[in-house]
Structures are given as C-alpha cells and as structure tokens.
Amino acid sequence: MRQAAGAGARLVQFPEGALVYPDKRVGATDSDGAPTPGDWTGPAWDVLSVETLAVL
Hints:
The chain is an alpha+beta fold. It is built from two helices and two strands. It has a two-stranded antiparallel sheet with strand order 1-2.
C-alpha cells in the first residue's frame, strides 16, 4: 500500500470478498450453529467477472 500510495494510488481494492465462487460457504451459521451456504443471488457476477479479468 505504501508503494502504491507513493506511485499516486488513492484507492486500494481488496477483492477477496467478492472474487469467490457461489459454491463456497460463507462465515455464517444457521440457528443451530451449523455452517450455512451464502445467498449468491445478489452480486452482479457479470461486472465482477469483467473486473476480475482486469486485475489479472
């Protein structure tokens, strides 16, 4: 981050939370404490796909 800031960056993106696949489990549990799958219907996957390819 220091190197990026020194080069003029004003924003650092940490995409780990977005660059995952729908079949992964999230850090959530159900009422019994068991891991529960995430609801992956909300993200704009088409946009995230384009952005992911842009940072490769």
